[in-house]
Specification:
Blueprint: H1 15-26, H2 31-36, H3 42-55, H4 63-76, H5 78-98, H6 102-106, H7 112-124, H8 135-157, H9 166-179, H10 207-219, H11 227-240, H12 242-261, H13 266-270, H14 276-288, H15 293-318, H16 327-337, H17 342-345, H18 357-385
Helix pairs in contact: 3-4, 3-5, 4-5, 4-11, 5-7, 5-8, 7-8, 7-9, 8-9, 10-11, 10-12, 10-14, 11-12, 12-14, 12-15, 14-15, 14-16, 15-16
């Protein structure tokens, strides 16, 4: 008579364990969810692609983060949210029609530039909300970013550089320069230089408004000018990566410090316009390098350079009514990724392997431990030979 070994019954998961597992499922890139959606209907897959494309604006690849950002845009302005969604769909469908790489489309790489173009077209329009003529340039501008993205990708890949928001910056600058402030169908509000003198002589700074400006600096990436949507965008970054959230706030604060050092107008500080390029420059380094003290110093340098470049370029382009947009952070981030110093190059992550900073750091530690074990085995083998 044989006796079967019976495993002890597994204890049911408690509420705490289920909550922790659900939270972990929603963080990072949510790869399990991405795999789960691959055999679903096309409309459901398209929704996931668009949500990831929405979050890719802030270097995040998470559909839940994208949903929170869409909620923030709806809270800020339903009209801007509608334009952003149209630009996102136009750029994504254009990529599908052109037969671009499926993995890049599903990760949202072809959507975020179109969304930004449509958002800024609405934000700079002087015709007010629900001006239906803007649907045309929003869709056309979004589709055009896909052509620029696919054209720039092979060139920048040779240097291991991401396309980033080069298409967005190019299209929005061309659109605003072509239409101007007196266009009969697409009139725009001119951008003012950040160093322009204010109408009133305010010499005292309001610290609470400066602190609020640091949060608004993150929201201004999506043209959000109020505190609630900006906080929701910060939560969206936090879900993906706490480290990246710290970089976002830190870069925005550096932008305000840079603005204070050159005495830009106070409205530029309080509205967050002084901080969003600093936040983007800081986040670019944090997303593409493994976190350590060297790369942390590099992120600080990137934030300062992005912020000062924003002020300088804003003063130059402001005289013709054009904004600096995110050109300063884009050019500075690209410059930082081109650095060839040995102590920095070994921490640079190839663009095809970039994920959340926490996962990048974890992968680096595993790789270091594996190399240490191999070295110990070789040392032991050589000692046994003698």
């Amino acid at each position: 008579m044989c006796v079967l070994d019976r495993k002890p019954p597994q204890q049911p998961e408690g509420l705490k364990q289920r909550v922790i597992r659900a939270l972990l499922y929603c963080t990072g890139e949510m790869q399990q969810f991405h795999i789960h959606m691959q055999d679903k209907l096309f409309p459901l897959q398209l929704a996931e692609w668009c949500l990831r494309g929405t979050s890719q604006v802030i270097l995040v690849n998470n559909p839940l983060s994208g949903a929170l950002i869409l909620g923030a845009l709806l809270l800020e302005s339903p009209w801007l949210a509608l334009l952003g969604i149209l630009g996102l769909l136009a750029s994504t469908f254009t990529a599908v029609i052109l037969g671009q790489d499926c993995e890049e489309i599903s990760s949202g790489h072809y959507g975020f530039n179109g969304m930004l173009v449509a958002l800024l077209i609405g934000a700079f329009s002087s015709a007010g909300n629900w001006y239906w003529w803007l649907l045309l340039p929003a869709c056309l501008g979004g589709a055009t970013t896909t052509f620029l993205f696919s054209g720039l990708a092979p060139i920048l890949d040779r240097w291991g550089l991401p396309v980033s928001v080069f298409p967005f910056n190019t299209i929005i600058l061309l659109y605003l320069a072509c239409t101007g402030t007196s266009h009969p169908y697409f009139p725009n509000t001119p951008a003012l230089p950040p160093g322009a003198p204010e109408s009133s002589n305010l010499t005292q700074l309001h610290v609470p408004q400066l602190l609020q400006g640091a949060v608004l600096g993150v929201g201004q990436i999506f043209a959000c000018q109020t505190l609630g949507p900006s906080l929701l965008i910060l939560v969206a970054i936090l879900i993906f990566s706490p480290i990246l959230t710290v970089y976002a706030i830190f870069g925005s604060v550096i932008g305000i410090v840079a603005g204070l050092s050159v005495s830009v107008q106070q409205g530029f500080l309080y509205s967050g316009l002084a901080g969003f390029n600093g936040a983007l420059g800081c986040m670019t380094v944090g997303a593409n390098f493994i976190f350590n003290w060297r790369t942390h110093l590099l992120s600080i340098a990137s934030a300062f350079l992005s912020s000062y470049s924003d002020i300088a370029l804003g003063n130059l382009l402001g005289f013709v009514g054009l904004p600096a947009s995110s050109w300063p952070a884009t050019l500075t981030g690209t410059l930082m990724l081109l650095l060839t110093g040995k102590n920095l190059r070994e921490y640079r992550i190839p663009i095809e392997q970039v994920t959340s900073p926490e996962m990048n750091l974890h992968s680096c530690l595993q790789w270091s431990e594996a190399n240490t074990d191999v070295a110990d085995e070789r040392t032991g083998h050589e000692s046994n030979m003698y």
